[in-house]
Amino acid sequence: MTHSRIRFASLAISACLVAAIHAAPVLAAGDDDSETPTCKKGEIYDTKTKRCVKQSSDISDQNRTDYAYSLAKAGRYDEALAILDTVKDQNNAEVLNYRGYATRKLGKTDDGISFYLQSVKLDPHYAKVREYLGEAYVIKGQLDLAQEQLATIKTICGTSCEEYQDLNEAITNPSKI
């Protein structure tokens, strides 16, 4: 093979690698709850095809909800809220919890609490919403209310579940929220 053909082949391989890297979804940093990757803005991760795709009506509500949470865990709160807006069933404990999470992370703690409380009404045994509601109370300095959520989580899943441990850590060390 001549030097120019080797160089051309090398450039072609490099171009393919760059294209693959840019097309590949990225896992949300620090996301212990989900392995749903995040895609570039305007796309959504389709769990059926395992690819980032343009948003379309054939993406399920659950897929949208999970993806919105991945975006929120990656710090892309406004995008997470926009995806949640596309979920057909807005009266869903998980949707309301993730809406509360993204809203709280945008600095709107009271609004986040409102969403969390709606979620709790729909599913009082949903430990994740109890954890996030407790964290919001810690942010507000309402440690008594945070402790109530911790006690409720203990009745739901014990002291070894992630939700209990995370809220307990937040109460003990509020700077980590």
UniProtKB/TrEMBL annotation:
SUPFAM superfamilies on file: TPR-like
Residue ranges the record marks as coiled coil: none
Keywords: Signal, TPR repeat
Spans of repeat TPR: 93-126
PROSITE patterns the UniProt entry points to: TPR
InterPro entries: TPR-like_helical_dom_sf, TPR_rpt
Signal sequence coordinates: 1-28
Xref: Gene3D superfamilies: Tetratricopeptide repeat domain
Protein name: Uncharacterized protein
